[in-house]
User: Fold these one by one.
Assistant:
Number 1:
Amino acid sequence: MRSSTGRWVSGDDFFNRDEELSILESRIRDGNHIVMTGQRRMGKTSILQELGRRLEEDGWIFLPTDVEGAISEEDVVTKIAEAVHQYQPLPRRAWNIVGRRSAELWRRVKKIGARDFAVEFRAVLDAGNWRHHGRHLIRRCASFDKPVVLAVDELPIFLSRLLRQENGAARADVFLSWLRAAFQQQAGTSPVLVVSGSIGLAPLVQRLGISDRINYLDPFRLGPWDRETSVACFEALAASGGFVVDEGVAEAVYDHLGIGIPQHVQSFFARLRDYALRHDRQRITMEDVDTVYRTELLGPSGQNDLAHYEARLRDGLGDETRYGIAMEILAEAAVQGVFTPDARQHLETRYSKLPSRAPRQVVETLDVLVHDGYLESDAEGYRFASHLLRDWWKARFRGHYTPLTVASRATLAETDPK
């Protein structure tokens, strides 16, 4: 088992998740379209790739496509076409897009390789024909002699980018309505659609008031590893690297992280491995765990991961106001240990002069923070689910953050005429 801190894994490097894979595979074999949710770094792409590998061994066709870089509906259809074309080049009749231009395109496509296919295909798509040709691609998948899974990764990122464009909300509505209709027309047959992403789809459509556009997608939540699995993964990584691990080290790693996010377990091991090698030894000690957590995971090198979480949070929230509210909530939860109902009231008061209603903004922001795994609720309020995320935010704000209740009292004192 190789250590991996950035790429998706499959085959011998894929650890555990047998129960989740079994459930997901069963739903797909029954013809259910899926939306996969879960916290960042939970391994959604890896489980999809492993699922695809196993299905292919059983005679299925797995067509993965990533639409994170798409900026238009035509880009998404082109990505789907590229995945289909790589499996089976499109015949001439598939190019009947826009009258006489299709014949010209066909002549060009016969002369180009797969690398240039997407460029040529995208050149003939526009706002007037992407829906027609997209439906044709999905019908083509249904005509294959094997069942098909079309896995579309980062669809919520594309929609978030679309919302920032002119008429973005209306275009997102049209796109999701088209996608639903195109797959529901193939009811009872393949292709099966699996949608995933590093931000939540459900909070996005709920904010737009179009939740029914994804009601045909069966939610599948990918949760964190439990303590036993996290410890087993760490020990397997150490054994494969030839490291001796002192008693209690794997358990201490989990306790520092708080929850078993697979990428965080991998990242912690990689940093411990490198730390031991820099000290010319093949042994990892309890002292190493504390040192590496403090200086590596929470240090400058760990800020790259934090930057990723912040960037995805901005994408998921959609505007600067909600992003500002989110940063206030996260700072409060990190420094104070919990975002309480009292702090929430003070935050709503602070934003009450905005044109939009502050309570609604805070509710929507909390929905995203919980859905995407930053916070979880308990009897006292909202807390970080991950100790690592909490400590990242605490290290960033601890020296210059004023708790919401204290800031509100100070503001009242300044404005009180007495």
Number 2:
Amino acid sequence: MNDLNILHGTVVRPEGCFAGGVEVKDGTIVRVLREGEAPGPARKTVDAGNMLVFPGMIDSHVHIRGGRLEHREDFASGTMAAAAGGVTTVMEMPVTLPPASRPGDFINREKEVKARAYVDYALYGGAGADNLEEIPLLAQAGAVGYKTFLMPPVPGREKEFFGLCSQTQEILTQVMEQVAKTGLMLAVHSELNQYVEEETRLRMERGENGLKAFCRSRPVEAETEAVKWVIAAALKTGCRASICHVSTPEAAALIQEARAQGADIHGETCPQYLLFNEDTAERAGVFARMKPPLRDAGRMARLRELYREGALEITGSDHAPYLREEKLRNGQDIWRTFDGVPGLELSLPLLVTAAERGELTYESIARNTAENTARLFGLPQKGRIEEGRDADLVLVERLKLPQPLDIGTLFTKSRDSAELYRDLPLRCRVAAAYVRGRRVFADGAITGEQGWGKFVSPV
């Protein structure tokens, strides 16, 4: 007897959607049905009529942080937010106190997450000039990949960035040589400071302020020239690389060209770069400051086309929670606030809403939020609605009338700083989420348990 049958839904796969359902036993998908096929007996049956059945999202870029920074987010609140947003696996970045750049710190971090997680989780290790010899040891500890920045540490946050910075081409090549030995992916924050510092100084001297001034202070070249660094080092070392949070179609084109040359390099982007631009987000002020910044409307539209076409293969929220009072510590001074927005809970609803508007497709969302991520990071049990895979499933209800988003209902501790998303008209809602067959969220409430989340690592 099955533990769970989900019937009469629209099953979403990258190659197409079809009416049908899923049978689950012992946390695994045992059968995918087409409508009209007789299901086997089950202890529980869910009628998914009028709902989309998506594979659980694997969020490739999350900064929950926890530990000494848990006033902003801890692994309970963060993974509750994930469950509510249809994210069944979070891939947590190593930037925290202390960062996960040494094996001991990595192992302690895994223990912290394990005690609190409602959904499954993977952890990146840090890779930079400070910890070259420890990079291979992090793979042995179970790292899903590595993270490095091509910029110096954020002033005042140097301790969080130990083992995480590759500020010259030479150091980046050395880091990639070490990562290549492991066969894992190096996720790279690709911006070069030399293109940002002078622009920022000039705009501040002229008294410019506001979101658009910040966006223009970080020109497209800061991203594209950094991507060129990564491509050159990847071709030289054979290292696998992911360009994090791609914000420009120019960078996406460079990644495509590099793959054609034989580089094992891939592009990740975030919903905010597909759905917002420097004009539409300007009302949010400091609450829309992020790195890289939002771009102009034309670039946003082209990036969305590339995402739909599959040129950008991976999706992360770049969830970076800060409390409202932290973001407003210096009022609306765009130059003196924290970078990042809370997005973990909203990525899938925003993307499906874009599909309802005809801007994306269900298939591209399933491909870029789940299947590709599982394949590229070595998580074969995840990412697809298929027999033998983990029963990580999300039921998404399409709404007859758009409903404005009430950020006060979000599970993240940093809900009050989600101004970018306030009152956005959503055309869908996550009705239920299942992690390995167990329902962790349903009808606006968390139904799972802390500690259910499982540590996953590449095989």
Number 3:
Amino acid sequence: MNRINVTVWDEAEGAIGPYPQGIHNAIADFLRASGQFNEVRIALQPQSEHGLTEDVLNSTDVLVYWAHCFHHQVEDAIVERIARRVLDGMGLILLHSAHASKIFRRLTGTDTDRLRWREVGERERVWRIEPGHPITHGVPEYFDIPNSEMYGEQFGIPAPDELLFISWYEGGEVFRSGCTFKRGLGKIFFFAPGHETFPIYYMPEMQKIITNAVAWAAPAHIPAITGGKMDFIRPEASV
């Protein structure tokens, strides 16, 4: 079994929409069922230190982060703690409205609130545009989400390292819905579909993409980046 340890983080702890045990449990359930990971645990915003203590993050290889409304309530010290771990190699999967989270803003340096949105339950068609990428492995060329929240361009993010998915909506809007970034030693994947009103995380295509993303984002366990003043050591003269 792969030794990847996953933490699924959620801003809420109770039932929401079609998720009687919460979105965090719905995500954790299919990650566990995949059999690909060593441990999948849950951390919640209402917990002490938002459930993301030093010990939890230091033993997390990939953090899956779902959020929608309460970004401003996340303590800045915890945001910096997450950012340090990402720079040191921890993977970060940002779902749905986590584009507006403090951690995404911290790591991308942009105002990601600048997008169009509409919540009327319209159809979303998700197009896979990079078929050779590990995150898109086994995902069809496109799939339809019957009812979704619309996110539309312009999306205030830096150019992603890789654009893997684009979404089209019934109203005609399009959106860069699946993007990767690298920060320090860490890999980041933002994936937009997943509004809490609709049972989107029960869809097999969604589960496949998120499971693939967690495996892709796992750290390579290369030595950490070090810095600071170094002594000068004169090389010995060649004979």
Number 4:
Amino acid sequence: MELGQLLREIKEDGLIKASLSSPAEAEGMEKVQIRPVRIKNRDLWQITVFQNSQVFHSNCGIDETMEKIAEWTGAPFRQVQLESIHYRGTVLTGKKGTVTVKKKRKGGISESRATTEKPVLSHNRMRNYIIQEGIPADFLVELSVMTKEGIVVKSRYDKFRQINRFLEFIDDVLPSLPDKKELRIIDFGCGKSYLTFAMYYYLHERMGLNITVTGLDLKAEVIHNCSVLAQKLGYDKLHFKLGDIAGYKDDSGADMVVTLHACDTATDYALAQAVRWGASVILAVPCCQHEVNRQIHCKELAPVLEYGIIKERLSALVTDVMRAQLLKEQGYDTQILEFIDMEHTPKNLLIRAVKRKGMQPAAGGKKSERLAEFLQLDTTLQKLLRS
């Protein structure tokens, strides 16, 4: 079998992944890994090049991807492994230039015995995570979520899924961010910063966007550790600051504000600051919503509020509804979405707010005022937005 024939048949069957290794030259590219990705409703193939301890990413259509594989086969790479829906292909180049091309049907059946059935391209496709297992992401290796070979540590798989889910939300809002030389992103209450690092890795290292990301937290040790890791990874525009969300001052503003699991009313201070800045995108996963639980009072709901656990859960939902409605009234299109499955954490709702053109207020008046009056509430976010 010729190389060109193998590439055509792998392409027609549906390329799932490819790896190119064993470079013939001592310097230059060390290996290449290829996988399918879906970006803005387009099916593309991500080409990851490992070169001189650095990683470079590009996204290409299938034709350009196959052309690159053909170009790199033999020189510089002596070993090429391809996988499609039904087949595995191998190309080996000897030291004297001899090329061996093999193709086998999955399950160990040789090509000579393979059926000629037309492949079903949707068959058995793995979920296309933005960060996929098998391709090392430097920050995940350092945070002990992945091994150096790109294998997800079994006990950290929930964290791996959470990171990918968060990046899907980020990917969805990219068209809503302003087209400017440098985007400013602030993560209020960044904590250990798994998602902060993920955000920087995806937007800057993978997408090539010019961004500055700032993580803010109250814990000095956390900020120190995150700063050291950012420096080690060479993430030059990822910075961490020690401070309280409520007292944070920065006249530069932000294009996107993220606040994940900031406790109780800290979320409200982050949301209010984002509104004052006129941030284009707000992503918030609230936590520990105690304020409404202390205030809520309604004669009509007395039988419901009589039970502590029901009152607590209802108060948490009402808190997030109030926040979402207040953001709508400030000129944002707002959604409340499931972040990750409830089985992994009860704090699984994400408020996503995207600024409307001109920040026009929502139609329908002040629904938040009517809800607050009905439940006898005066929340922190209400007060901050009034001031």
